[in-house]
Amino acid sequence: MELAQLIVNTFVALVIAAVGWYLANNYRLQTRIKLLELRVGAYRKLFELTEITSPTRMGRGESLSEEEAKHLGQAIYDWYYRDGNGLLMPNSTRQRLQDLQQKLQGEPIRSQSSDPLLREVSEFRAALRRDVGVFASDELGRGLAVDERRPWWRVVLRRR
Questions:
Q1: Which domain covers residue 26, as residue numbers?
Q2: Residues ≥6 apart with Cβ < 8 Å to 136
Q3: What is the percentage of the chain residues whose pLDDT exceeds 70?
């Protein structure tokens, strides 16, 4: 009788663990999907801003005028801070955005300020992005990573 009870208890424990694992992974998946929905909404607005650079745009000149480039750079800058859009952008994309702004504005964008207060605010913004789960594992330096060979919704744990 004790062996039967042990088997039943073990089975129940395994079922509870499996349900818990499923629910935890489902919550992570739902969180990632919600973040992706927010990101796509924000990126659609940014994509629209870049229409001026489309090679298929009617009446487009050979290149952007200096005024058009500066206007686009300012519009991208405004987009980044409007509605918290910058929170949704991983570092690799944010770096490309800063490189683009530098080219559009014709002025250098410093990656880090020499002012300790401005550095603190920058680190705070990075912490906000970390909190909403925007960074990839290589940016976090932790064990969650997306396996590029698997579908996007598969998250695998990797030990370092």
A1: 2-54+62-157
A2: 90, 91, 92, 145, 146
A3: 80
Tell me whether strands 144-146 and 155-157 are parallel, antiparallel or unpaired.
Answer: antiparallel
Q: Tally the domains of the chain.
A: 1
Helix (H, G, I), strand (E, B) or coil at 156: strand
The chain-wide mean pLDDT, for the chain, equals 78
3-state secondary structure 17-66: HHHHHHHHHHHHHHHHHHHHHHHHHHHHHHHHHHHHHCCCCCCCCCCCCH
- In the chain, the amino acid numbered 160 is R
Beta-bridge partner residues of 157: 144
Helices 66-81 + 2-49 axis angle, to 10: 150
DSSP state, 142? S
Per-residue model confidence as pLDDT tens digits over 46-97: 999 998 888 777 677 778 888 988 999 999 999 999 988 988 888 888 889 8
Here the tokens at position 80 are 């980044």
